[in-house]
């Protein structure tokens, strides 16, 4: 849908995201709308949108650089407990910033959280993000298997608490260095097609089955992840509570 270039803008290196020539007008509009929503959130843990040039001769979105990959790659690199804690807190604070702006990301996962040159996590990819008003709820399935809340999968109404469920899966990814259900389901089987993987992950989620966290993950974090994964949205902690709990468990990681 888009191509990303390294460019120089007003003396500053940044990433330029531009739609491919074959992208429909509707999808192009959605891409720029998502960028403006992302631009509205100014926070150290949200990838900054420097400028949006929708009507320019070369339409593009200028983003701050995040040259050190994403959280999924980070989790595969055998990070220390201290680094995992720092990353978890940054991701939670980025999510908190979105919720304070009434934004539901709807696709939180390690691959959508990029790392700057100082290894600071930055929430990005707002393609599914929506800003809620008042007591409005959302409906409609989106997201990634293993990260998507059960109420989203079952086409019920949902709100910010769906992001908290997804955040639980990101924390799992950080702590276990694996994708949710990767240890429970052999994704590398030759007879397991992509559609099968989606169906199995969704089925397990709807049946109340969650990936197991081993003893290498400190108990306070195991408890928090399980609470984020509650099948009942109203029983999940708020994002403010998640941030408080991660800050409080610092000693367990250092």
Annotation keywords:
254 residues, single chain, two-stranded antiparallel sheet, Phosphorylase Kinase, domain 1, 14% strand, 8 strands, globular, protein serine/threonine kinase activity, alpha+beta, 9 helices, Transferase(Phosphotransferase), domain 1, 38% helix, four-stranded antiparallel β-sheet
Show the helix and strand layout.
Layout: E1 2-9, E2 12-19, H1 25-39, E3 49-53, E4 60-63, H2 71-75, H3 81-100, E5 103-104, E6 113-115, E7 121-123, E8 130-131, H4 150-153, H5 161-176, H6 194-206, H7 219-228, H8 239-248, H9 250-253
Antiparallel strand pairs: 1-2, 2-4, 3-4, 5-8, 6-7
Organism: Eutreptiella gymnastica
Domain Protein kinase: 1-254
Protein name: Protein kinase domain-containing protein
Give an account of the 3D structure.
The strands form 3 sheets. A 4-stranded antiparallel β-sheet has the order 1-2-4-3, covered by helices on one side. It has a two-stranded antiparallel sheet with strand order 5-8. It has helices at residues 25-39, 71-75, 81-100, 150-153, 161-176, 194-206, 219-228, 239-248, 250-253, and strands spanning 2-9, 12-19, 49-53, 60-63, 103-104, 113-115, 121-123, 130-131. It is α+β, with helices and mostly antiparallel strands. The relative contact order is 0.12. The chain folds into 2 domains: 2-63, Phosphorylase Kinase, domain 1; 71-253, Transferase(Phosphotransferase), domain 1, CATH 1.10.510. One of its GO terms (molecular function) is ATP binding. This is Protein kinase domain-containing protein. Residues 1-254 form the Protein kinase domain. InterPro entries: Kinase-like_dom_sf, Prot_kinase_dom, Ser/Thr_kinase_AS, Ser/Thr_Kinases-Pseudokinases. Pfam families: Pkinase.
């Amino acid at each position: 849908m888009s191509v990303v270039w390294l460019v120089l803008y007003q003396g500053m290196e940044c990433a330029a995201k531009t739609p491919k020539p074959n992208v429909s007008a509707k999808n192009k509009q959605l891409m720029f709308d998502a960028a403006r929503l992302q631009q509205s959130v100014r926070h150290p843990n949200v990838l900054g949108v420097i400028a949006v040039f929708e009507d320019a001769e070369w339409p593009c979105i200028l983003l701050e650089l995040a040259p050190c990959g994403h959280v999924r790659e980070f989790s595969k690199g055998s990070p220390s407990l201290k680094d995992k804690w720092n990353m978890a807190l940054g991701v939670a604070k980025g999510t908190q910033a979105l919720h304070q702006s009434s934004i539901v990301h709807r696709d939180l996962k390690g691959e959508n959280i990029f790392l700057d040159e100082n290894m600071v996590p930055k929430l990005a990819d707002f393609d599914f993000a929506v800003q809620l008003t008042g007591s409005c709820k959302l409906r409609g399935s989106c997201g990634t298997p293993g990260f998507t809340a059960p109420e989203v999968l079952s086409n019920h109404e949902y709100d910010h608490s769906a992001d908290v469920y997804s955040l639980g899966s990101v924390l799992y990814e950080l702590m276990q260095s694996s994708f949710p259900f990767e240890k429970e389901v052999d994704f590398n089987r030759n007879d397991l097609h992509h559609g099968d993987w989606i169906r199995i992950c969704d089925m397990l989620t709807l049946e109340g089955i969650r990936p197991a966290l081993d003893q290498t993950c400190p108990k306070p974090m195991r408890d928090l992840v399980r609470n984020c994964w509650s099948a009942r949205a109203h029983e999940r902690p708020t994002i403010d509570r998640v941030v408080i709990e991660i800050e409080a468990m610092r000693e367990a990681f250092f």
